[in-house]
Design goal:
Strand order of the largest sheet: 7-6-8-1-9-10-2-11
Oligomer: single chain
Low-confidence stretches: 1-8, 10-26
Mean pLDDT: 92
CATH superfamily: Alkaline Phosphatase, subunit A
CATH topology: Alkaline Phosphatase, subunit A
Strand content: 5-15%
CATH class: Alpha Beta
Largest sheet: 8 strands, mixed
Shape: globular
Number of strands: 12
Number of domains: 1
CATH architecture: 3-Layer(aba) Sandwich
Structural class: alpha/beta
Radius of gyration: 19 Å
Order of helices and strands: HEHHEEHHEEHEHHEHEHHEEEEHH
Number of helices: 13
Length: 367
């Protein structure tokens, strides 16, 4: 990816974004930022008294910081994953989870960092946080459970056959945001960075092999999406809880995490509906973007509902609760600000998309 046509990419970014504000100088620098993204739960269900994920809802929440007003930005899944790594708002195809792997057209940039069009695979001028990290000398990886080959994705303009889990594979391309950008998949380095989750075990053994940014996606069973799973496992929050009990301790024991690391656990979206549990609420002055009037999709509304998030870090005191609202654009802003990746991408530069680190990193020893 270092061979990316930087002139084209830089020109597109400069024209679309302008100069962002400087990051707060006193915010501790997180050296290894991990995120685990689970599926389709309202915060009231996940973090309620009778939660089916008690390890996350009670034990981990007590051990770190709870962002209780953390929101998704749309329905269904894919538009949220896209927003987390690029700041691009939903369009009709990403809201439908892109059953066909079509090109995003016409791909016209706007002054606020958005691109006009509809489709799935964004043109080369649309950068992601992965591009900015790599171009700034940082390391990143997407760890995708059950992915058969590195950087696995459908062929352009073909059907996505990973939409439904099978006994042979429970990988879903729509939960792997990196494969929806030509700025990543057009280069052989995609296979070095977008890998099976198994690779994370060896990468965690040493600080130097642990990426600065790790995006972790469980398969369709372990992320809580399917219930029950095609394999006969229970699925849902119960299954997601089991996944976290296996992987969270491994991450927290790693040298990279212990050295100013941070792990975030959140959900792509709340319940999309139809039904009484559907939640398409939003926060942070979220804008619908130029390509769809209703980010809530089949449940009309301005966003993807309240999902909540838990942060774990040596830089966070136990029992920290953050009441201020944040969303997936805030997540991207937080990562960019932490690593000084400028300019901010898409709606990560909007006034409401501020970093949650100043409120969450409560351990003064990290300052």
């Amino acid at each position: 990816m270092r061979l990316l046509a930087k002139a084209m990419l830089a020109a597109a970014l400069t024209a679309a974004l302008g100069a962002p504000a400087e990051a707060q100088a006193r915010t501790p620098h997180i050296k290894h930022f991990f995120v685990i993204v689970l599926e389709n739960e309202n915060a009231s269900s996940t973090f309620g008294k009778d939660s089916e994920a008690p390890y996350l809802a009670h034990r981990l929440r007590r051990q770190g910081a709870f962002l209780r007003n953390y929101y998704a930005i749309g329905h269904n899944s894919l538009d949220n994953y896209i927003a987390m790594v690029s700041g691009q708002a939903p369009n009709p195809q990403t809201q439908a989870d892109c059953p066909f792997f079509t090109s995003f057209l016409p791909g016209t940039p706007t002054s606020d960092g958005q691109y006009i069009g509809s489709g799935c695979v964004y043109p080369p001028g649309v950068a992601t946080v992965a591009n900015l990290l790599e171009d700034s000398g940082y390391t990143w990886k997407g760890y995708m459970q059950d992915m058969a080959t590195p950087c696995q994705h459908p062929k352009i303009n073909s059907r996505d056959n990973t939409q439904t889990a099978t006994k042979e594979s429970q990988y879903a391309a729509r939960h792997n945001p990196f494969v929806y950008f030509h700025a990543i998949i057009d280069f052989s380095t995609c296979g070095e960075h977008d890998v099976n989750l198994r690779v994370l075990r060896s990468d965690l053994r040493r600080r130097r092999t642990t990426p600065n940014f790790s995006f972790i996606t469980p398969d369709l069973c372990n992320d809580g999406h399917d219930s029950p799973c095609v394999t006969g496992s229970p699925g849902g929050l119960e299954q997601a809880n089991r996944f976290l009990r296996r992987w969270v301790p491994r991450i927290r024991r790693s040298p990279g995490f212990k050295d100013h690391g941070l792990l975030m656990i959140t959900f792509d979206e709340a319940e999309a509906g139809p039904g009484d549990d559907a939640d398409s609420s939003a926060c942070c002055g979220e804008q619908p973007g130029p390509n769809t009037p209703s980010p809530g999709g089949q449940t009309p509304g301005p966003g993807g509902g309240r999902v909540g998030a838990v942060l774990l870090s040596p830089c966070i005191r136990r029992h920290t609760v953050v009441k201020e609202p944040f969303n997936h654009y805030s997540f991207l802003h937080t990562v960019e600000e932490n690593f000084r990746l400028l300019p901010y991408l898409g709606y990560a530069r909007s006034p409401g998309a501020r970093s949650f680190l100043p409120a969450a990193l409560t351990n003064p020893c990290c300052r």
